[in-house]
Amino acid sequence: MAQLISFVFPIYNESGNIELLHETITRVTAELQEDLEFVYVNDGSRDDSLELLKSLAERDERVVVVDLSRNHGHQLAVTAGLDIVRGDAVVIMDSDMQDPPEVALELIERWHEGYDVVYAQRRTRQDTFFKKFTADMFYRTLNALSDVEIPRDTGDFRLVSRKALDHIRKYREHDRFLRGMFAHAGFKHVAVQFDRHARHAGETGYPLKKMIKLATDGIMGFSSKPLALISQMGAGFSLLAFLGILYALVVRLFFPTHAVPGWTFTVIVILLVGGLQLVMMGIIGSYVGRIYTEVKGRPLYGIQEIYGRREDD
Ligand code: UDP
Ligand code: MG
User: Fold this and answer.
1) Which band of pLDDT confidence, cut at 50, 70 and 90, is reported for residue 116?
2) Which of 85, 218, 225, 279 has its CA 20 to 30 A from that of 311?
3) CA-to-CA distance for 293 and 287, rounded, in angstroms?
4) Using one digit for the tens of pLDDT, what is the confidence trace for 175-194?
């Protein structure tokens, strides 16, 4: 039986792109040996995207349309798609022609070579200066802070094998940053370089507010450094407080004429309490960090392969 490749397209107000996208992806994938499935996830579009998608589904039986109850955001729209695809591999792509459909073929080629996650990495991008600048800053910060290595200049455009997909489906965190999840999951992965186009029609569904939310999810979801920072500050300030207390005592004992009555006691109390508070916040922070890890409920490990186990074992 032929294998099945699924495509996931998140759709938010893309009426100007849907026809062209479907036409292009159909043409580009015509030569593939595998069966195909195109999953379009309508993420609460306010234009006539849904009508266009429904008519696509009528014309092409390989099309599946998932209509979400409201706008849930790009990351959740993709997740909904990943949850229902049936393919042996799935390709995640933007629907505005920024991710060139031809590149999907290269991703599929690498999958044939045995890779589980093939991510498309931007060699160049046609975006506003503001977008490029903020994206660059974001990747720098993220890489400095993150506990896992998240590849630079990659979006969600990637191919995922059935094996990696089954694993990724176990991640049920609400504030999602898919790129981070894939990095966290591991598996045999490889990058494919591509030139990212400008958006074909319509306007971005990622205004600054959503970009900030995504960036926060990326950093908060994949770094515990901000919490560790509290502990470090606590230690630093406690040391300073200790020196301050010594100074106050020395002044009080050896230069009593310089000490205003009550000064020593007041200074000692302030420094002691301040230092203690930060240290304790650090301790609470460590527990909060652990609680956070537990509630995310991520899978504990992924298995690339098991060798030597027989079917009847
Ligand atoms: N998108 C979505 N829900 C949203 C915003 C965007 O499903 O709330 C989709 C959108 O239709 C597109 C992809 O996510 O297919 C990327 O969005 P967009 O092109 O607007 O972002 P940008 O490329 O400007 O970062
Ligand atoms: Mg776009």
Assistant:
1) very high
2) 85
3) 10
4) 999 999 999 999 999 999 99
Residue position matching structure tokens 């800053």: 137
CA-13 nearest atom, ligand 1: 11
**CATH 3.90.550.10 for domain 4-223+298-307:** yes
Ligand nearest to the CA of 199: 2
Q: Which pLDDT band holds residue 309 (cuts at 50, 70, 90)?
A: confident
How far apart are alpha carbons 63 and 105 in whole angstroms?
Answer: 19
Q: pTM above 0.85?
A: yes
Q: Give residue-wise pLDDT tens across range 67-101.
A: 999 999 999 999 999 999 999 999 999 999 999 99
115 lines ligand 1 (CB under 6 A): no
In short, whether 14's Cβ falls inside 6 Å of ligand 1 is: yes
Provide the residue ranges of all domains of the chain, joining segments of one domain with +. 4-223+298-307, 225-295
For residues 14 and 45, the answer to whether their CB atoms sit within 8 Å is yes
The string of DSSP letters for 245-273 reads HHHHHHHHHH-GGGSPTTHHHHHHHHHHH
